[in-house]
Specification:
mainly alpha; 11 helices
């Protein structure tokens, strides 16, 4: 049990010797250390899952997940252990603000892969829908690529057929006029095959010849365009058959699918924010514990230790300065100037 307690002390970045002399602070730093440790564990799991979606390998996911967890653990440990209680709440909150921002960023990074794992089934279903939507988009793009050419060819074919139909209608009308002239039901109303009939018959025969030439010419062009349509349809079918399903298995695709789900489902949206807030609370808990807790024996002893080291440093510096000043009595003016310019010490010239 003592080993576990000391392990959590180390996780919190606390001084073991000081805590042994401050038993009232033990539980607080055990709790802080345990929070930091389990945050690192969650970070390893999140990093491992995220890397598995990238590398599709358990070994690579485990290796990079452990590295990621250790990095987050070390960063959290540094954030908490570098905070000091000095009795000035305003200064403490200002110094803790960058640490809180960093903790928020870490919590978001940790929470996202775990969300993907929690909603894995829903995300897979949404990815299948995204694949179908992508196929539909590809199909529409392919059809649009051939649509303009198909429309142009159909319009040209219809225009050629309309020319033939118009010429046939004109021929039929002239034949009818000539026939009416022949049987006396139209024109001059005289039943005979006289000169007028022959003129009208010649007009009908001339249009008939023009129609035959037009049918031959336009028929050839219609056949060419219908062949082009057949070839176009073959190319379109080949292009549609070559379409492939998008492999939306990467991390970015899963994040996009989860984002779509949060906009579609209020339940998933609420769960998303609950999970995010949970990790945010866990990640920022050690910082807030340090901020809201009163200065305890550990803080005073730690301050004493640090002040002792600082005082010893200045004492040693003063001793060195005193020795240099004594030696300066034997230095020339040029040597004193050199010491002052290079070392930044103030010496009196004798």
């Amino acid at each position: 049990m003592n080993r576990l307690k000391e392990f959590f002390w180390q996780c919190a970045g606390a001084n073991k010797e000081i805590l042994n002399n401050c038993p009232s602070e033990s539980s607080k730093y055990v709790g802080i250390g345990a929070t930091i440790f389990f945050t690192g564990v969650f970070a390893s799991l999140a990093g491992g899952y995220a890397n598995y979606t990238i590398f599709d390998s358990y070994w690579a996911a485990a290796f990079f997940g452990i590295i990621w967890g250790l990095m987050i653990f070390n960063l959290d440990r540094f954030i908490v252990s570098s905070m000091r209680k000095n009795g000035d709440s305003r200064q403490e909150w200002l110094s803790a603000l960058p640490r809180l921002i960093l903790a928020v960023i870490i919590s978001v990074v940790i929470a996202k892969p775990l969300e993907l794992k929690i909603f894995e089934k829903e995300v897979e279903a949404e990815i299948s829908l995204m694949i179908q939507e992508d196929l539909a988009t590809q199909e529409m793009t392919v059809k649009q690529r051939f649509s303009e050419t198909r429309t142009r060819l159909n319009n040209e074919i219809q225009s050629l057929k309309n020319e033939i139909n118009e010429k046939e209608a004109k021929r039929d009308e002239l034949r009818k006029i000539a026939q009416e002239e022949a049987d006396g039901t139209g024109g001059t109303k005289q039943r005979s095959a006289g000169p007028i009939y022959r003129i009208k018959k010649a007009d009908a025969d001339r249009v008939e010849a023009e129609l035959n030439d037009l049918v031959a010419l336009n028929g050839q062009q219609i056949n060419e365009r219908e062949a082009s349509l057949t070839e176009l349809e073959t190319q379109e079918k080949e292009a549609l058959n070559e379409m492939q399903e998008s492999e939306l298995t990467g991390l970015a695709s899963r994040i996009e699918a989860l984002d779509r789900l949060t906009h579609k489902s209020n339940a998933i949206w609420a769960a998303h924010w609950f999970i995010m807030l949970l990790f945010l609370a866990v990640e920022t808990a050690p910082v807030f514990v340090k901020l809201i807790s009163q200065r305890g024996p550990y803080d005073f002893v730690l301050k004493k230790e640090e002040y002792g080291v600082e005082a010893a440093y200045y004492e040693d510096l003063a001793k060195v300065n005193s020795v240099i000043k004594k030696r300066s009595a034997r230095l020339t003016d040029d040597e004193i100037d050199y010491v002052q310019n290079r070392l930044g010490l103030s010496l009196e010239k004798t």
